[in-house]
Specification:
- The chain has 306 residues and is an alpha+beta fold.
- It is built from seven helices and eleven strands.
- The protein has helices spanning 4-18, 41-48, 165-173, 179-184, 194-203, 217-236, 271-275, and strands at 23-28, 52-59, 62-68, 74-82, 87-93, 102-108, 113-119, 125-133, 146-148, 283-287, 290-294.
- The strands form three sheets. It has a five-stranded antiparallel beta sheet. A four-stranded antiparallel beta sheet has the order 1-6-7-5, with helices on one face.
- A hairpin with a 2-residue loop joins strand 10 (283-287) and strand 11 (290-294).
- Helix 1 packs across helix 6 (217-236) and helix 5 crosses helix 6 (217-236).
- The longest helix is centred in the C-terminal third of the chain and has 20 residues, at 217-236.
- The chain binds a DNA duplex (16 and 16 nucleotides) through residues 1-3, 6, 32, 61, 82-86, 101, 119-124, 175-177, 181, 184, 186, 193-196, 240-243, 245-246, 263-264, 288-291.
Length: 306
DNA sequence: ATCTACACCTGACCGC
DNA sequence: TGCGGTCAGGTGTAGA
């Protein structure tokens, strides 16, 4: 469910509310949420208990918490968290009623609060993972270039200071795939999901199946700009939410859904066409086993596409 | 090496 | 009221 702006909202909330806290104990209510530890939840629990949370980091839709071990030394591993489609990370007081889909609870020391992982569909999950070096070429190695091994294949996201549009362009040029497929490929550009892919394509006036390699340099720049703008605006609004499933760390949902131009707008007039005195209705079409939304007038079906 | 299809889950909603 | 079908914002991986 959450895309980059939602995950960043949650990451910032975690950094603000639980950084510095010591994890007193861990309770796992559903082993399936532990991903790779699901056959050995004790390993997860034992290694995490007693650690201090020293930071909250993110790349694309992956988030991880860095830790100091019980001796105060930086742990060589981090707690990786992915919210999947329905995951929530909440900070609650101990006495707050248990959520229906509560999966994992981290009890925080010297406070009456807990970090709770709630996940209805179990598409999300958390696990401990070794930190590895991921220093960008030309940079000096530093602690801030450590990432969990399982996150290393994820491309830098559009809000990352080392985001490199040139690398994205290279990938665009050497594939026969359509542009939306590339936007959703987290190893090409990360953080983009179905909502913001459709919104960025609408802004850039591109059809989802336009072969990526046929974009002009100007069209590619316009698309990258659209992706960065739509994510920046969504982040400023606290993310997108259609229902109660997505909430930030306090349990509040974002407002960006009021600003959607294409996504979920099937049957509604395209705002850009409307402003030009034309009526063109947004259509929903199946693509990659899910839905794509576009304006049939400003996002014309390309020749050579399906 | 690429790329596609599917599995992994639960729940809301709609038409009958 | 219940039943079956459809839909949902993601990702790892098996197999083509």
């Amino acid at each position: 469910m959450p895309e980059l702006p939602e995950v960043e909202t949650v990451r910032a909330g975690v950094a603000e509310h639980v950084r510095g806290c010591i994890i007193r104990s861990v309770r796992v209510h559903d082993n399936r949420s532990l991903r790779r530890h699901n056959t050995d939840p004790e390993d997860f629990t034992l290694r995490l208990a007693g650690c201090r949370i020293t930071g909250a980091h993110r790349r694309g839709k992956y988030m991880w918490l860095t830790l100091d071990d019980a001796d105060g030394e930086p742990a060589p591993y981090a707690l990786v968290i992915h919210l999947g489609m329905s995951g929530q990370l909440l900070v609650k007081t101990n006495d707050f009623p248990v959520e229906k889909h509560l999966k994992v609870v981290l009890e925080l020391s010297e406070t009456n609060r807990q970090l709770r992982f709630v996940d209805q569909r179990i598409f999300g999950g958390m696990f401990l993972d070794e930190l590895v070096d991921d220093t960008p070429a030309g940079q000096h190695s530093a602690a801030r270039f450590l990432v969990p091994a399982s996150v290393k294949h994820i491309a830098r996201d559009p809000l990352d200071e080392f985001f490199d549009p040139g690398r994205v362009r290279t990938r665009f040029l050497r594939t026969a795939s359509g542009v939306k497929r590339l936007l959703l490929d987290q190893s090409v550009i990360s953080g983009v999901g179905n909502i913001y892919a459709d919104e960025a394509l609408w802004r850039a006036k591109l059809h989802y199946d336009r072969p990526a390699k046929t974009l002009s340099a100007a069209q590619f720049r316009a698309l990258m700009k659209a992706v960065q703008e739509v994510m920046g605006e969504a982040l400023a609004a606290g993310g997108t939410s259609f229902d109660a499933l997505y909430v930030n760390i306090n349990g509040q949902s974002g407002y960006f859904d009021r600003s959607l131009n294409a996504y979920s707008q099937a049957g509604a007039p395209c705002p850009r066409c409307l402003a030009a005195g034309r009526t063109s209705l947004i259509v929903r079409e199946p693509f990659m086993g899910r839905s794509s939304y576009r304006c049939p007038h400003c996002q014309r079906t390309p020749r050579g596409a399906r």
